[in-house]
Design brief:
The chain is α+β, with helices and mostly antiparallel strands. Helix content is 19%, strand content 37%. It contains six helices and 18 strands. Strands 1, 2, 3, 4, 7, 10, 11, 12 and 13 form a nine-stranded mixed beta sheet that branches. The protein has a five-stranded mixed beta sheet with strand order 14-16-17-18-15. Helix 1 runs parallel beside helix 5. The longest helix is centred in the first third of the chain and has 12 residues.
């Protein structure tokens, strides 16, 4: 069995927990995921199994989230799972002020990831360093926020903003919550997060772990085909003789204006893997076909 699973990750599960559960349900060793989700987050977690694990590196980096930001609170982890650093009611904060501040977070922005994150510094995860009380300089990264849409606003001592965010890979929504609170001088933290889109997979078409177990028991589960999430890449179709040579590791001359990574097929529709086109030479990089 090989392919992809569009999993709806449950609350309080790590991404590793989900991989372990899928591995057990499918009775497979080769299972991996794309785009780690924090335990407190829910939503789309792309899962690959079998030969599909070799394709994770080629998935598109697009992400989208529905987030709830709570103002007046700052925590060590930039979400409600951490210890409270400051807590100060800010009932005076208005939606108009929030709307004025949001454009600062659109486009390409510089962002300092949360100290409790999976980013590595000198070969160690930031969250491991933070748990040991070690303070390190977290590297600034450039990320891209493509779109923001306000969904709801709730007034009160600790106002809350529901917002939809579309962004590129590597964007931390916790950092946006923290930094928006800093701009508004109220403090802010992430109160809830659901990933609605990840690497070409959509929440509306996702399965829960219970759904997966039920379908497996009924014999109705169908994995997502190997090439389905790779449609952002151009394709090259080879005749049978060339396809065989390519699968054996040989470079093939092709007439195409494509440059870079491409899906490779044996005509008419058999998916072979991913190749790289360099000056009309198709180089095997990840051969999937057996």
């Amino acid at each position: 069995m090989q392919g992809f699973l569009n999993l709806n990750k449950p609350f309080d599960w790590t991404s590793h927990d989900c991989v372990a559960r899928v591995r057990k349900l499918l009775r497979l060793k080769r299972v991996g995921h794309a785009g780690t989700l924090d335990p407190a987050a829910t939503g789309v977690l792309p899962i690959a199994f079998g030969r599909a694990t070799r394709l994770l590196q080629y998935l598109p980096g697009n992400k989208a989230y529905n987030a709830t930001i709570r103002f007046g609170v700052q925590t060590t982890t930039d979400d409600l799972q951490g210890e409270v650093i400051t807590s100060a009611p800010c009932p005076q904060l208005s939606l108009a002020e929030v709307k004025t501040a949001l454009p600062q977070f659109l486009g390409k922005i510089e962002q300092i990831p949360p100290s409790y994150s999976a980013i590595q510094v000198d070969g160690q995860r930031l969250y491991d360093l933070a748990r040991r009380g070690e303070k390190v300089e977290v590297p600034i990264r450039t990320v891209e926020v493509l779109q923001m849409e306000i969904l709801a606003w709730r007034e009160g001592d600790f106002p809350e903003l529901d917002i939809a965010i579309a962004c590129g890979a590597g964007t931390y929504i916790r950092a946006i919550a923290r930094d928006l609170g800093a701009v508004l001088q109220t403090g802010g933290t992430l109160a809830a997060l659901t990933r609605t889109v990840s690497s070409g997979f959509d929440l509306a078409e996702s399965l829960t772990l219970n759904d997966l177990e039920t379908q497996l028991q009924a014999g109705t589960f169908q994995s997502i085909p190997l090439d389905a999430p790779l449609q952002h890449l151009p394709s090259v179709v080879l005749p049978a003789t060339s396809a065989q040579k390519w699968c054996q590791g040989q470079r093939i001359f092709v007439t195409t204006d494509i440059s870079g990574n491409a899906r490779v097929y044996e005509e008419p529709t058999r998916f072979l893997g991913i190749g790289q086109v360099n000056y009309e030479v198709l180089i095997p990089t990840t051969v999937i076909a057996i």
